[in-house]
Amino acid sequence: MLTDTLKMILPIVIAFCLGILCRRRRLISGEGCQTLKTIVSRLMLPVLLLNAFMFAEYSADSVILIVTLLLANILIMVIGWLAGHRMGEKGRYLPFLLSTMECGSIGYPLVTMLFSATGSMQLAILDVGITIFNFMIAIPLLQMADGKSPDVRGLLKSALLSPTMIAMLAGIVLGLLRVDELLAAQAPLYGIYSGIVSFITAPIGLLILITLGYDMSLRRDLLGRVMAVTACRTALMAAVGALSLFVITRLTTLRPEMLYTVILSFTLPPAFGIVMFADFEGQRDFVSTSISLMTLITLALFCVLTVVVPH
Q: What is the pTM of this model?
């Protein structure tokens, strides 16, 4: 048991530390780190998402999971707005730090480490609700918090034309057309396909953890406020996650893999993309430092989860 746990945890710690080392020793430049992210987000991740959504199971239970994750994020955002409203200017971006979940860059690599390709298929269902919330609710409201008119048309265009969204939609269409069943029925062809997908997506976890370690920046002058917000998000996600699981388990029966995938989703940090869609006037350092610490919490909770999940 200890050996299996260390096999899961040590590679995560080592990869993260390698990222920190690459920055301190200047083994990789900032441009080089950005290139690694581009390779992952525009090449590797779309392949993973296409495969995950094509082989995901679509049913009435899937709708329950999607709606529950969507409503959970809405509930957290409302709570964040109520709390932020009392804080005045300092609480302007609190709702967005408490809600949203980063599936693409960190959720899929982590769940794949736990359950291989099966895990990404489970998370794909949840990601539908998470993506709807991020692009249709969180980002327009974030733009309004900056005093702008929400560019819904621009957001839709950006989302629909992104490689990840194209891969998700293509995977859903192929899955609904039962292409996955036709492919699985041809053993030699399926073997070749699986080998290609595995070869392309295998380095995702390593590269993401290296870039996370490289980007990690915790400003000491902001740590007090950042730790308070991080503790608030962790507690809120735990409470709403428990409520969501209660509702889901009353409406449907979860397989163990999906149960742990739902739990994992509520440990994820805020969506990294929110920093691309707002000015965060006067608070950008606070938001970036908060996301960095929340990412560390995610990795710590993931290490705990590896101990709990049956091997």
A: 0.83
Residues in the chain: 311
What's the confidence (pLDDT) of residue 235? 96
Arithmetic mean of pLDDT, 151-177:
79
Residues 97, 272 contacting (CB under 8 angstroms): no
Q: Find, among 73, 126, 76, the residue nearest to 104 by Cα.
A: 126
In angstroms, the CA 10 to CA 26 distance is 23
Contact between 176 and 58 under an 8 Å Cβ cutoff? The reply is yes
The residue whose two tokens read 């200017």 is 89
User: What's at 236, amino acid-wise?
Assistant: L
- 87's tokens: 């804080």
pLDDT digits (tens, 9 = 90+) for 246-260: 999 999 988 888 999
Q: Which two tokens stand for residue 158?
A: 């950006």
Beta carbons of 52 and 197 less than 8 angstroms apart: no
In 3D, which of 55, 51, 56, 80 has the Cα closest to residue 66?
Answer: 56
Question: HSE on the CB side for 122, CA within 13 Å?
Answer: 24
User: Do the Cβ atoms of 306 and 5 come closer than 8 Å?
Assistant: yes
Distance CA 194, CA 198 (A): 6
CA-based nearest residue to 252, from 66, 11, 86, 22: 66
**Three-class secondary structure of residue 197 per DSSP:** helix
54 CB-contact burial (10 Å; exposed 0-12 / middle 13-18 / buried 19+): buried
- pLDDT for residue 76 is more than 90: yes
Non-local CB neighbours of 160 within 8 Å, separated by 6+ positions: 166, 169
d(CA 292, CA 287): 9
Closest CA to 233 of 95, 125, 131: 95
